[in-house]
Design goal:
This protein is 39% helix and 17% strand. By secondary structure, the chain is an alpha/beta fold. The chain has an eight-stranded mixed sheet, sandwiched between helices. Helix 9 (246-249) links the parallel strand 7 (227-232) and strand 8 (253-258). The two termini are 20 Å apart. The mean pLDDT is 97.
């Protein structure tokens, strides 16, 4: 695996590149960075060129000055691929990465061979995200917008580790999925600017999510790029029932449940995750 720093869209981006073949851009969620993809990358490097960046605000990439949401990340990723000299590529994403892939597909559909999603927010979830019985699941989205949040979570390495591990274990069905890298994740988020950098996504996304939860999200034309969604059976954050309106956002949709995992299919069952990714891109001729 090769570590690179690429200048794009006015910022420096850290990424890891591995393998050879058709390019796949891997977009992480929160609380993650490029390392979350390592098990999948090791299983796919014999058939794809895998590019796993740290999104702006995360890992070893530059930090935004304030709120920074999916539209900004999408512009970053297009510029990043330009910087790598890659015109056409496919994208795999999860969580925040899945939120980024939607404006990416609207901004530059001609550059995308296909989209592969694990669990993520899309407009069809609507008011269900804020239903009374769901409030205990989304409290962190409000907390992350508070000015004191980075200082509180980052008061010590141990407080940072406790906070990050709460989500990595709490949202997973296979509770040991991150045990081997938990210290690496804690150290990464404890680096200067990384807590605030990750929280910037929630500050930028707030207005759009409120509109979605009120049922006032703007009606956008469906995304026509070939799309595969493998949604976890046991995601406590985004239940599988919320996939029922995906067809309104993606016109060329291949949807199935990913059994036996929670919010992090790519980390909880990397063998199956890699196989699903490879099979989809083979079906659409991107392999």
């Amino acid at each position: 695996m090769e570590h690179l720093t690429i200048k794009a869209n006015g910022a420096d981006f850290h990424l890891v590149r591995a393998g050879s073949g058709k390019p796949l851009l891997l977009l992480h969620g929160w609380p993650e960075f490029w390392l979350t993809w390592e098990p999948v990358m090791s299983r796919l490097s014999d058939r794809f060129m895998l590019i796993a960046p740290d999104l702006r605000g995360f890992g070893d990439s530059d930090k935004p000055d304030g709120p920074f949401g999916p539209d900004g990340h999408a512009a970053d990723m297009l510029a990043l691929m330009d910087g790598l000299g890659i015109e056409r590529f496919a994208v795999v994403g999860h969580d925040v990465g899945g939120a980024v892939m939607q404006p990416l597909a609207r901004q530059a559909p001609e550059r995308l061979a296909g989209l592969f999603f694990f669990d993520f927010v899309y407009p069809g979830i609507g008011p269900r995200m804020a239903a009374p019985d769901r409030l205990n699941h989304i409290w962190y989205q409000s907390f992350h917008q508070m000015e004191m949040a980075p200082a509180l979570v980052g008061a010590s390495r141990e407080s940072c580790r406790l906070y990050i591990s709460h989500f990595l274990k709490g949202w997973a069905h296979r509770k040991d999925a991150f045990d081997d890298v938990l210290d690496a994740f804690a150290d990464n988020f404890f680096k200067a600017g990384n807590l605030a950098g990750g929280f910037a996504h929630y500050r930028a996304s707030h207005a759009g999510r409120v509109a979605m939860m009120k049922g006032d999200a703007p009606q956008l034309a469906p995304i026509n790029v070939p799309t595969c969604v493998r949604w976890a059976e046991h995601d406590p954050l985004f239940p599988y029932a919320w996939t029922d309106r995906l067809g309104e956002t993606f016109s060329a949709l291949d949807l199935a449940m990913f059994p036996g995992v929670g919010h992090f299919p790519h980390r909880e069952d990397p063998d199956r995750a890699a196989a699903e990714i490879a099979a989809f891109f083979q079906r659409i001729g991107w392999s």
